[in-house]
Amino acid sequence: MNRRLAAGAALIAASLTIAACGDSADNTAEDTTAVETSTAVETTTEVETSTEDAEDAEAQDVTLEDPVIRAMEAGKGMTGVFGTLVNHTDQDINIVEFSTDLGAEIYELHEVADGVMREIEGGFVVPANGSYDLEPGADHFMIMGYDEAIEAGDTVNVTFKDSEGNEYTANDVPVRTLLPGEENYGADGELQGHDPHAGHDMGHDMGDMGEHIDAPAH
């Protein structure tokens, strides 16, 4: 009799152990599935967000590709924006102004002629289905009247407009430390094409300001 009771008790204990193991395995499987599902959702969301950003950029008639802003020390007052304007339409588009979220006082489109930097007349005409380079020692966007530091590693949102009033954006443009170029401000130290009584001291030479680049610093 005692042997039968003992055998029965052992059988019940074994059944309970098996059931407990089964519950543990089920819980582990559920936890694993939940983690996998959560990871998959996060990954999908990141991909969708990245894709949407890319599609938004491509949807614009004009985009600023591979943009960069030269880092600037506090008090320098000016720096440049470089990159390539790409026209995704079959019509020429004339870019006539730009701005940023820095809140600078002056934004101008500049050219460099005979090594002298000056405001360009007529804007930048980006050819149909073509591109227009904003380069060191050549045409570029110019940020002026901004005395706070623009540090390498920061990002800046850039907005530019065409002659028809259409607006385009280039968000999160990286700020990098770039090498200075060889341009200057002319013999009188003033930016050519500017009113010397505009109320802004433009008497910086290119060696101090280092506004342009020969090549990005890696």
TrEMBL record:
Pfam families: PCuAC. Residues 30-48 have a biased composition (Low complexity). PROSITE patterns: PROKAR_LIPOPROTEIN. Keywords: Signal. SUPFAM superfamilies: DR1885-like metal-binding protein. InterPro entries: LpqE-like (IPR007410), Lxx211020-like (IPR058248), PCuAC_sf (IPR036182). The keyword Signal applies. Residues 29-60, 182-218 are annotated as: Disordered. Residues 191-218 have a biased composition (Basic and acidic residues). Residues 1-20 form the signal peptide. Residues 49-59 have a biased composition (Acidic residues). PANTHER family: BLR7088 PROTEIN, COPPER CHAPERONE PCU(A)C. This is Putative secreted protein. It comes from Corynebacterium pilosum. The gene is ycdB.
